[in-house]
User: Which sequence fits this backbone?
């Protein structure tokens, strides 16, 4: 069992402070992390870590399906992150071995 919870279907306006207040009804909240995209917008889910397994279990049981900021939230025990293979194409992809550069002195505009 774990003391880390997944909280899904969050409103984009939900704050970490609001989640901390909600979950603190069931025990000590160790951390709250709303997951955000590369420009800082909420992705609509978060992880809440409680101080104990029984507190996390009680919070999940009692808060799953409740409404928060106009949305019905989903609360489950978090699963461990699965290992993903590393890619060599970098953070933005590109796929070719020269970092996305073209060789040959020209770029095609696509209009031949």
Assistant:
């Amino acid at each position: 069992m774990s003391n880390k919870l997944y909280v899904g279907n969050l409103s984009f306006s939900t704050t970490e402070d609001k989640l901390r207040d909600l979950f603190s009804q069931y025990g000590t909240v160790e951390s709250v992390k709303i997951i955000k995209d590369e420009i800082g917008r909420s992705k609509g889910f978060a992880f809440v870590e409680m101080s104990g397994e029984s507190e996390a279990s009680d919070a999940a049981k009692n808060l799953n399906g409740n409404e928060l900021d106009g949305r019905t939230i989903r609360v489950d025990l978090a699963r461990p992150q699965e290992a993903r293979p590393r890619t060599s194409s970098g953070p933005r992809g590109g796929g070719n071995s020269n970092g996305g550069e073209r060789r040959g002195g020209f770029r095609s505009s696509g209009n031949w």
Summary: Residues 4-77 form a domain with the Alpha-Beta Plaits fold (CATH 3.30.70.330).
